[in-house]
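Sequence, please.
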């Protein structure tokens, strides 16, 4: 059995850095520490949402997480402000 390090489950730093660069003003500078901190935080956030979604699926005897599961998880974890926006995005995506 292969043992994964915690860092192996994180999003690639290059992806995180690119998102940060595209979101911040062009003149902004981002330190390596800031990128690494954001990488860890975003990865943990995704893990929490995924775990909550997975628990819902297991309780409903399903194997596949869907968009509604993600929205449910976000609401149940206190991120309902984001889930409302994502409901609109999900509906448009499915059109």
């Amino acid at each position: 059995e292969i043992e994964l390090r915690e860092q192996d489950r994180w999003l690639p730093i290059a992806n995180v850095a690119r998102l940060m660069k595209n979101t911040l003003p062009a003149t902004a500078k981002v330190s390596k520490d800031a990128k690494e901190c954001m990488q860890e935080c975003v990865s943990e956030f995704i893990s929490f949402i995924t775990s909550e979604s997975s628990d819902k699926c297991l309780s409903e005897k399903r194997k596949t997480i869907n968009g509604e599961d993600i929205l449910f998880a976000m609401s149940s974890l206190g991120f309902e402000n984001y889930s409302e926006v994502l409901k609109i995005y999900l509906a448009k995506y499915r059109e």
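The chain has one domain: 6-94.
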